[in-house]
Amino acid sequence: MTTTAPPRPAAPAGPPSPPSLGRRVAARLLRWWRQLTAMRTALMLLFLLALAAIPGSLLPQRSLSQSKVTEYFRDHPSLAPVLDRLYLFDVFGSPWFSAVYLLLFISLIGCIVPRAVEYARSVVAAPPPAPRHLRRLPEHTELRTTLDGDAALDVVEEELRVRRFRVVRRTRAHGPELSAEKGHLKEAGNLLFHVSLLAILVALAGGKMFGYEGSIVLTEGDGFCNSFQNYDTYSAGPLVQGSDLGDLCVDLRSFQATYEDDLTAASFSADIDYGPAGSATRDTTISVNHPLRTDGDRVYVTGHGFSPCFTVTLPDGTEPATDECRPFLPTETRTMSSEGVLKLPDLGPGQTDQLAVAGFFAPTGVVQGGLLTSIDPRPLSPQVAVQVFRGYLGLDSGIPQSVYQIDQTQVERGRLVQVGSANLTAGESFTLDDGTRVTFTGVREFAAIQVSHDPGQVYVLIASIGIMIGSLAMLLLSRERVFARAGPGAGGAGTVLSIGSLTRGSGETGPRFQALTDDLQDALTTRAADGARRTTTPATSPDGAEHAEPEAPPR
């Protein structure tokens, strides 16, 4: 007798093998990408970018005014180095600001591309079929009519097309039905908003890459040409070469400043001549909010001050400086008290023969307690308190120094010695111990001129308009779908129209749906009455006699 052993039970299945390292990395990267391209992430990055720009408006920036940054370091010697290590004086060029900017750029692209594809598909696709249970929609109702189902749907279709709906008719198991939708412009406005926001980022980045900006202080009667060597401060994008600057020369003929009764500044305006180098010039007036725009460049007046003028006469009668004017920087904007220096490095063969005339200028000067001060920003009684230094100025030492101050290091080392001081009004002079005479000849006004070239500015304006239009479309328009299905009435008499509406993006769906159903009921009643009238009205013969319609012959 042969026996057969029962089959051995299958070994229990072991735990599933873990995914490979590559699959785990890919899954994690995909999850991060989805988080980065989510709309909430884009909004958070946009808010973070606005938050990161706040220090740039509160603290002086090197790209705008190096002198103000230097002044901040002087006034806050312990805090300024800490802020500098955090790039708070170069906010818009800092690594952390660039990182947020780049992440926002990537996030917007990741948001826009899928939504644009989905929007294109929805525009091309027909409205979806009506849901089986129209009563479950937020807005629904039933209308009864004596018309048959197709005729009733004809009335609904006509009424919806008047309201600019796209309409599709279908016949399904539940009976003839109609689907209609409108409001794609709402989603188009949403896309326009985000595309315009992305365009602003691109335009701003392009303006920084291909733009430049230079500032210079011009005294009345002076001029300059658009070359980076001529500017006091100059910044340009990494793709800008020196030869890319526009051909423009500007001469400052005069400057006018007006003040309110409380002596606060009311307006600044500068009369200038401008044009290409070596060509005929044109004259115009620029002010704070009315710059000169020419060939893609904009010329602004950003500030003003005074340039005291001096004549220095040596003992032998030569004049190394004749009516030489130097801008003095305002130390108090309310009275325009200013400080500056006139440096004369070429008075003799030796380094110790150099001269510096440092001064404090008061537009309307008054001496109080032996000190000169100003009581009015207008040049009603200009005076200057000067200190004359002789010795080595240190201009050729290789160490940069301010053109508005003497190098205090040379004074501390004894290489620059004060040899005289005086308070002077216009036309007065005083003589040094060696017979050198310093004369205060008068004062001229100066204007701070800024030349900017930003090729992205027009695109920023266009994108800003796009953002406004897109926002209005999102706020004012709504996406709406209307479904209608025709079914037999009670006892097979007439037709029952089941109508439902689904609206996104609007809180006033009830009144609008009620108005639609009221108009549909009126149109159905009118169409039914017209059909009944055509049925009951007898035919009229050519001679005016009325005859009954002949009966159809039996088949």
From TrEMBL:
InterPro entries per the UniProt record, alphabetical: Cyt_c_bgen_Ccs1/CcsB/ResB, ResB-like_domain
Residue spans of biased composition, Pro residues class: 1-19
GO CC annotation terms, alphabetical: membrane
Main location: membrane
Keyword Transmembrane helix on entry: yes
UniProt record, GO biological process: cytochrome complex assembly
Domain ResB-like: 39-506
Entry keyword Chaperone: no
Membrane topology: Multi-pass membrane protein
Region of interest (Disordered), residue spans: 1-20, 504-555
Membrane-spanning segments: 38-58, 96-113, 191-210, 458-477
Compositional bias ranges of the Basic and acidic residues kind: 544-555
Low complexity bias (residue ranges): 523-540
UniProtKB keywords: Cytochrome c-type biogenesis, Membrane, Transmembrane, Transmembrane helix
Subcellular locations according to the entry: Membrane
Listed name of the protein: Cytochrome c biogenesis protein ResB
Source organism of this protein record: Goekera deserti
Lineage: Bacteria, Bacillati, Actinomycetota, Actinomycetes, Geodermatophilales
